[in-house]
Amino acid sequence: MNTLLRRTAVVLSVLCAGAGTPPTLWAHPEPLTVVMVDNRFEPDHLVFQAGRAYALTLVNRGTDMHEFTAPAFLKSATVRDPRLLSNGGTDIVVQPGKSVRVLLIPRKKGTFDLTCADHDWDGMVGGITVK
Ligand SMILES: [Cu+2]
Asked: Tell me: domain 3-130, CATH 3.30.565.40, correct?
């Protein structure tokens, strides 16, 4: 498959991911907040339960833009509003002083990398576990 076709397939799968999920699953999402500062995640390790709906709120209290970069995690999850994802579905961008609330359902058990694509060099890294 050429690169363009592959990218199109990724975009389509991201856009269609929320379509088959019954609306009731989103009714009572478990709240989870991650604060982003210059330069780390608080907390830096997140634990989710597969198949459960979460309201993940990313709060940027730093002066820099930060990203919740978790390609494998985000691609394996059902994200209710895929428009909140950037860079081909690999991350969620949060501007300084802003917050982003993402409804998602992790689907795949395992451990996943979490970084900020802009500040991984400065140790802005963490991890995600889906049980
Ligand atoms: Cu950052």
From this structure: no
